[in-house]
Each structure stands twice: as structure tokens, then as C-alpha cells.
Design a protein that fits this description.
Strand content: 5-15%
Length: 183
């Protein structure tokens, strides 16, 4: 990275390059679809494995290419890392890894279903208003905070949650609730 041998990826025109993401013993390596850069990444990974004594589990590994990468280049690059393509419906630690920009509602459905699984309609009907609000806080606290911190929740989605819990009130109340949940 110091000598610009690995370019990483940028999530926006002015964003910093992302070379790798780590969580516990999981690693995502990002780079340009270029044989020289992929060879460099492989060399870095091999050196890391030699020094640390750790080895990748290639059976749990996969690769994701940009839509602009040709099939012939994909095959060439996969000779460095012979792993399957990452499937669009891959779930890791309970979260979808890929959310298509055109299908962002999938992110909301994922959170909604996690929320709904924690509270059945029958249970929601037994709670008073204060109990429902307390339950919202506790359920949201138990849903992975990292995921929710990086997904902008739409008002329609939050209204769906409120309706599920049977929380109602005037328009001003709904606006206050939505504002508080969006913060």
C-alpha cells in the first residue's frame, strides 16, 4: 500500500481507498482487477500466512468482480485465487453481504424480519404503549448495531415497524417517533 502496489477500491470519487476490511477472523481484501495487483495481493497474503502461521480457509472464501470485468480477465485472475464467485444471496454473520442499489428495500426487509421474529403480533398486542416503546429499544439494541448504523432507514420502513407494534397517534406523534428512531 505504501508504494501504491495495491490500489484498493473507492466507494466514492473523493473517498479514501479501502484495501482490506477485517472483523474477528474474517478478512475482505479489495483491489483492482489487474494481474499485477492480484499477484501482489497474493504475495502479501502468503507472507502474512508465513509470518503469522495462519492460513485462509479456501473452502469458505469467494471472489467478487465488478460488472465491468470481462470473463477472460476473471478466469485469468481466478488462477491466482481459485475460489468460487460470491453469490448475490450470501449471508455472513446473519447479514446479506451484497445489497443491490436498485433493490435497497431488501436491506429494510432483512431488518424488519429480524425485528418481527423477535416479537410476534400476539406479544405486541399484550403490551401497553410504554411496554411497546421499551420493547422497540431493546429489540433494536439486540439487532446488530453496526449494520443499522450503515443503512439509512426510510420513513416508510419505520412506519411499517410502528404499525406492526400497533403504535399509533396523531401526525405530530408519528413525526416525533420517526425523528427519534432515525437519530
Amino acid at each position: 500500500m505504501d508504494n501504491d502496489s495495491v490500489s484498493g477500491i473507492r466507494l466514492g470519487p473523493n473517498g479514501p481507498p479501502i484495501h482490506s476490511l477485517m472483523f474477528a477472523d474474517d478478512l475482505i481484501i479489495c483491489g483492482k482487477a489487474d494481474p499485477t495487483e492480484v499477484a501482489t495481493i497474493k504475495n502479501i497474503l502468503q507472507n502474512f500466512c508465513r509470518v503469522s502461521g495462519q492460513t485462509p480457509n479456501w473452502n469458505k472464501s469467494s471472489i467478487l468482480f465488478s460488472k465491468t470485468v470481462s470473463n477472460s480477465l476473471k478466469l485469468q485472475l481466478k488462477s491466482f485465487f481459485p475460489v468460487p464467485d460470491l453469490q448475490p444471496n450470501t449471508i455472513h454473520l446473519g447479514h446479506p453481504l451484497i445489497i443491490n442499489q436498485a433493490d435497497r428495500i431488501q436491506a429494510y426487509d432483512f431488518i424488519y424480519h429480524k425485528f418481527k421474529n423477535k416479537l410476534t403480533t400476539l406479544e405486541a398486542n399484550k403490551l401497553n404503549h410504554a411496554g411497546r416503546l421499551a420493547y422497540i429499544q431493546s429489540v433494536f439494541a439486540s439487532i446488530p448495531i453496526y449494520y443499522m448504523a450503515h443503512v439509512l432507514l426510510k420513513k416508510n420502513f419505520l412506519q411499517k415497524l410502528l404499525l406492526f407494534l400497533g403504535i399509533s397517534g396523531g401526525q405530530e406523534y408519528k413525526k416525533r417517533m420517526l425523528h427519534n428512531l432515525c437519530i
